[in-house]
């Protein structure tokens, strides 16, 4: 069908791009040529279409219309105006790549100081259903530097689009959807409509952002060029964007260091560079990175005695600046100790949401590392007071919101930790009974665990909780027929659930609004990974491959390139603040507690494959997450918010519970209560359950410390990566006379994982030396035992 003249699409393009444009300047479709062929980029229609000028000033939001002004075979220019502001939008090629150049001029007599003014990109980031979401580009990273901008969008199937501007951009924002309405009140949804690049924006903005892009003076014109470049792999991004931005791009393998450790930062730059370093103790220094090849420099970053953050600002000869943050941490046990203290300050409570009593994980697991009779008694008193309010003591049935089967499975996990902390077999018996209730009431014939008809196998990992129970039951089952029968029953249930996950191949549901959901994907991967590790080598294949496929797709939701030790490895979650800490509207919570679900997944992936890439991700993410404990004050925070500017409201008057004999239910919409408005931007958010009594879920932060206990406490790692380099975590390694000497650098290390191939090794535990003649990847215990598979014990 031929379109009417007024709606006919404008076809433009260059050697590496093709676009179809509407006459209002918005993109109907865009194709970019990558090394692997053409990549289709979908664009939104309606209110979120783009590219389009959007702004907010004088208390009103504005969408500025533009119309076609001129065109040629390579591009088109659109122009429009609003009051004294004249706007233009040009599509064209820069070095063969797709580019959008936007300009605005103030023809008036007074300054224009908008709250925001920029381009809504219109790129379709709306991940609604399977399998469509596999072809949507999620805005994985958007980063303003003082002199330029860069970032990328990524699909679950692996394609990337780099986004770069050689000009400074004040800010950015994601357009979050509305999930559902409660009368006239909006609850934030689980999808991102698209995103906006705010060329001008009012403060306050994060210190790294340009600070003087808040106004347009009379007679002034400003112009920005945005380039979109397709990539096959993330490791191509920084090298390629450096010349586009004409700025240094900073690459860090390790974003957190223990005291005394060092890391090498690679700087991609077409010009020579200098670096200014601000140390945690306040000292400043200027250093000269060393040339390491064409367009590449290296800077060695050494952690001193002071814990906190090292800020590195790199500047090239043209004055372009980029910033990195490397965290310097105390030992891992310090974080667990502080989290335990916080779990009694913000105590677990009986509610309809297991997130409210997640602190029990930390309280019980820390008892194994810091035995303390008084704190254990307090923990047991909490458990004794809240458990009967949530579960029937005889039937083990949940007493409220029975469809939230994650409440049941999470309590199974807590009771396993209680058993391991106290040796009380009654705790494991109760966990076993709860598991039986879950299996009989929530497992469907296809093997999945469900809440009603909704697939719940991957909502707070119920199968992993059962696997934790199974691992605890194994020792008892060796000499007890009753426990053996329970072990067999629970193992069979988990196998059915994992077989169903393999068969589903990503076509699964989640709690709340369906999307390519951070936790749904990471929990699927981690459960499949752990189950694979519990199988003999020749039976792992289907579970391992399914776990890795999901985990690799999940990279589009993970912060794997950001040079920031506060955020590295964090997953891009954005609807939890409204439930956990009574803050609205939506904003990224990254890291949030559920980031640690990916950390389990990458750890299991490393143990399954030996690929150091996964171990590096694991340790970087773990270190970012445990920094929810403030390394200066020791206080526990809830999450980190990377959004640069969010006008938010939070409940500011204490919500009091009148009847402590009942478990609390439901959520609390911010606007139903007295609240206060303030601006949030690239910062930590504190916990609030120390002064609010109502059902809030900020205790979910304790997932980080549950993960810490499983992945890193009492463990050290030595591995040889694909380049032949020796990599260590929680230990040092030095070769002398043909023997690799490994010395733990963390307290209470009892296991060392050696991924070295054929090698003679001597491990220097606190209790003595253990020598081993390695032929394969193994764990070495401090008692001298060599273990090939940690979750099988062989």
From TrEMBL:
GO terms for biological process: carbohydrate metabolic process. It comes from the Bacteria. SUPFAM superfamilies: Six-hairpin glycosidases. This is Uncharacterized protein.
């Amino acid at each position: 069908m031929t379109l009417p003249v007024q709606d006919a699409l404008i076809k433009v393009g260059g050697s590496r791009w093709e676009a179809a444009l509407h006459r209002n300047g918005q993109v109907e479709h865009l194709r970019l040529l990558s090394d692997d062929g053409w990549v289709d980029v979908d664009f939104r229609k309606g209110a979120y279409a783009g590219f389009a000028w959007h702004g907010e000033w004088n208390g009103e939001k504005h969408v500025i219309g533009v119309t076609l002004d001129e065109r040629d075979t390579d591009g088109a220019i659109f122009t429009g105006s609003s009051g004294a502001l004249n706007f233009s939008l040009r599509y064209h090629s820069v070095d063969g790549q797709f580019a959008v150049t936007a300009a605005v001029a103030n023809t008036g007599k007074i300054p224009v100081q908008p709250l925001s003014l920029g381009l809504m990109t219109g790129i379709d980031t709306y991940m609604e259903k399977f399998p469509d979401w596999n072809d949507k580009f999620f805005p994985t990273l958007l980063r303003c530097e003082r002199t330029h901008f860069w970032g990328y969008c990524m699909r679950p199937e692996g394609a990337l689009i780099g986004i770069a501007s050689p000009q400074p951009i004040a800010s950015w924002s994601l357009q979050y959807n509305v999930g559902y309405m409660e009368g006239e009140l909006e609850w934030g949804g689980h999808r991102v409509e698209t995103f906006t690049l705010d060329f001008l924006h009012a403060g306050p903005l994060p210190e790294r952002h340009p600070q003087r892009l808040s106004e347009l003076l009379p007679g002034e014109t400003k112009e920005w060029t945005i380039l979109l470049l397709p990539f096959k792999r993330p490791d191509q991004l920084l090298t390629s964007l450096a010349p586009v931005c004409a700025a240094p791009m900073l690459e860090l393998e390790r974003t957190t260091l223990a005291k005394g450790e060092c890391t090498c930062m690679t700087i991609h730059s077409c010009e020579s560079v200098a670096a200014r370093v601000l140390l945690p103790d306040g000292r400043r220094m200027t250093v000269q990175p060393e040339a390491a090849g064409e367009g590449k420099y290296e800077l060695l970053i050494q952690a001193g005695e002071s814990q906190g953050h090292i800020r590195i600002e790199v500047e090239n000869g043209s004055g372009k600046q980029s910033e990195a943050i490397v965290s310097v941490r105390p030992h891992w046990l310090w974080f667990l100790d502080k989290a335990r203290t916080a779990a009694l300050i913000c105590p677990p409570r009986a509610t309809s949401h297991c997130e409210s009593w997640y602190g029990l994980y930390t309280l019980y697991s820390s008892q194994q590392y810091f035995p303390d009779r008084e704190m254990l008694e307090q923990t047991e008193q909490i458990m004794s007071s809240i458990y009967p309010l949530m579960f029937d003591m005889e039937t083990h049935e949940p007493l409220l919101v029975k469809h939230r089967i994650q409440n049941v499975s999470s309590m199974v996990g807590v009771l396993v930790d209680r058993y391991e902390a106290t040796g009380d077999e009654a705790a494991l018996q109760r966990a076993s009974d709860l598991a039986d209730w879950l299996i009989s009431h929530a497992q469907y014939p296809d093997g999945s665990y469900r809440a009603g008809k909704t697939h719940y196998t991957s909502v707070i990992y119920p199968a992993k909780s059962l696997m934790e129970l199974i691992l605890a039951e194994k020792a008892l089952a060796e000499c007890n027929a009753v426990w053996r029968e329970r072990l067999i029953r629970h193992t069979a249930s988990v196998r059915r659930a994992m077989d169903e996950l393999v068969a589903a191949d990503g076509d699964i549901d989640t709690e709340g609004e369906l999307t390519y959901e951070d936790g749904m994907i990471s929990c699927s991967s981690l459960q499949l990974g752990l189950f694979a590790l519990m199988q003999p080598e020749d039976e792992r294949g289907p579970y391992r491959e399914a776990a890795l496929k999901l985990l690799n797709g999940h990279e589009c939701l993970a912060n794997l390139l950001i040079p920031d030790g506060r955020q590295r490895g964090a997953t891009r979650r954005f609807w939890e603040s409204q439930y956990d800490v009574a803050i609205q509207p939506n904003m990224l919570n990254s890291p949030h507690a559920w980031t640690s679900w990916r950390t389990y997944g990458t750890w299991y992936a490393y143990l399954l494959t030996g690929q150091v890439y996964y171990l590096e991700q694991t340790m970087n993410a773990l270190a970012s997450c445990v920094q929810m404990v403030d390394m200066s004050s020791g206080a526990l925070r809830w999450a980190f918010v990377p959004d640069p500017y969010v006008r938010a409201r939070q409940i500011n008057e204490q919500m009091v519970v009148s009847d402590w004999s009942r478990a609390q239910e439901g959520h609390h919409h911010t606007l139903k209560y007295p609240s206060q408005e303030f601006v949030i931007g690239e910062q930590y958010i504190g916990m609030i359950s120390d002064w609010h009594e109502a059902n809030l879920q900020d205790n979910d932060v304790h997932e980080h410390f549950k993960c810490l206990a499983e992945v890193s406490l009492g463990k050290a790692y030595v591995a040889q990566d694909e380049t032949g380099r020796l990599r260590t975590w929680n230990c040092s390694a030095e070769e002398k006379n043909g023997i690799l000497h490994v010395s733990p650098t963390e307290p209470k290390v009892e296991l060392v994982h050696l991924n070295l191939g054929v090698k003679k090794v001597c491990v220097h535990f606190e209790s003595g030396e253990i020598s081993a003649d390695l032929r394969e990847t193994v764990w070495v215990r401090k008692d001298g035992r060599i273990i090939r598979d940690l979750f099988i014990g062989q």
